[in-house]
Amino acid sequence: MRGRWERARTWGAANPWAVDAGIALLVQAAMTMPFVVPRPPEFEPATWSAYGLTTLTVLPLVRRRRAPVAVLLAIMATSALYKVALEGPGQPLPYTGLVSVYTVALLSPPWKRLVTAGLLLVAVPVSVWLNTRSARELTFSLFVFGAAHVFGRLQDARQRAHRIEAERAAAHERARIAREMHDILSHAVSLTIVQAEAGPVAVRAAPERAEAAFEAVSETGREAMSQADAGAAAGEPRERRAPGAAAGPGRAPRSGGAVQGQAVWPSRTRRRAACGPPCPRRPGRASTGSCGRR
Prior knowledge:
Strand content: under 5%
Low-confidence stretches: 238-294
Number of helices: 9
Oligomer: single chain
Structural class: mainly alpha
């Protein structure tokens, strides 16, 4: 169940227009109910003009993410026109107003939220006075609009916490990859130095082994670069990688490379074949390994 919810959230983040259109349809369905339910005889029957104005109140919700304050002002204007010009069915809740206030609290900067709060403190009492002039309705309206604002701020805080957690995880992964690449390159450079030092010795002592020694140096460098490319590709953001690319955008696999995660170090047998048997240490000089011949 949680996996489905996570997939739905991911899809909604990738398609915000579809989410907004769905919310507008749900609000329209809720606001249609008073027009479907039979009205008492003392009230005038619902008209198509009143229903059309109700639909006009819902339409701005499709653009609620792009211009939250403008959408709220448009909804307030059409709602006031509905109250003044038409005698249509009332709504149990101000659905469009609640959605727009939630969106302003979620997406708008502080000064816009402050302006919206001041505007609601004026508009809500005026709306109640035009409708029922009831203190109970005024209290209820202020409560539901305040709750919508609080929910929007809580959702904003939750999203910021998720972003911070994702950034920390990405920084930790980049540090891990950097450590692994440092180890790989350090080992490859040290091995290259040993093999390069063995080259001149092989030229003088065993010329037939010189070509193998220098080929080992070249192969070690290619393998180190292949590992570095694989580590850099693993550290890139997923959305920047080409589908199926293992070496990152703009990188081609290098010859002599290995699959990521497999060992690429030259074997001890190959190093000895390239460099020859170990030679005795000279007094006062430390040995550099199997290729320490001078």
